[in-house]
Amino acid sequence: MEEAKLVKLARKGDHESFGQLMMLLKDQAYRIAYCYLHNEHDSMDAVCNAMEKAFTKLNQLREPKYFKTWFLKIVINESNQILRSRQQVVELDVKQFENLPSKATPEKNEDLEELLNSVEPTERSMIYMKYYLGYSLEEISRVTDTPLSTVKTKIYRNLKQLREKLVQREALQ
Questions:
Q1: pLDDT per 10-residue tile (average), the chain, 173 residues
Q2: What's the pLDDT score for residue 166?
Q3: CA-based angle 107:110:112, to the nearest 5?
Q4: Which end of the chain is more exposed for a tag (fewer CB within 10 A), N or C?
Q5: Which domains are delineated in the chain?
């Protein structure tokens, strides 16, 4: 069933429709939360808290067609709340990138992991959403509540810096 239709039914009190919406988005929500939190249990907590908030505040959603973006934004907010409560630095688990087709050697994977850990968590999650989850720049902009031009700048600036650092490292070897 179409997502917007499920949202309309869920707004009318159809719990089954809300459950179907959550089943559609649970994997993406978990991946985004994990990208922020780097902890399985905290990520699950963030997703569960986001589901609860989405259920209770579903009537505040203006456009049913933006449910996915709205929900993922709640997941990000919940992840940030958990981060604030722990007050720790977040590291991205680069092992998630290992499933991507690559000719990289284990040494290059370690370099990439180290370099990605040097990127600020919010910007790292933008890179992750773009190149691992396949989100468009517009979707990332809506999910992170960041202007499109800022999303583009942050992603491409970080990629350029990462590329330059990799080239420098290879030149030294």
A1: 85 90 93 88 93 92 90 92 68 51 53 75 83 85 89 90 79 67
A2: 77
A3: 110
A4: C
A5: 3-86 (1.10.1740.10), 95-172 (1.10.10.10)
* Cα–Cα distance, 162 to 7 (Å, whole number): 40
3-state secondary structure the chain: CCHHHHHHHHHCCCHHHHHHHHHHHHHHHHHHHHHHHCCHHHHHHHHHHHHHHHHHCHHHCCCHHHHHHHHHHHHHHHHHHHHHHHCCCCCCCHHHHHHCCCCCCHHHHHHHHHHHHCCCHHHHHHHHHHHCCCCCHHHHHHHHCCCHHHHHHHHHHHHHHHHHHHHHHHHHC
Burial code of 142-162, b = ≥16 C-beta within 10 A, e = fewer? Answer: bbbebeeeebbebbeebeeeb
pTM for the full model? 0.62
Specify whether the CB–CB gap between 154 and 123 falls below 8 A: yes
Task: Compute φ and ψ for 168, nearest 5 degrees.
Answer: -60, -45
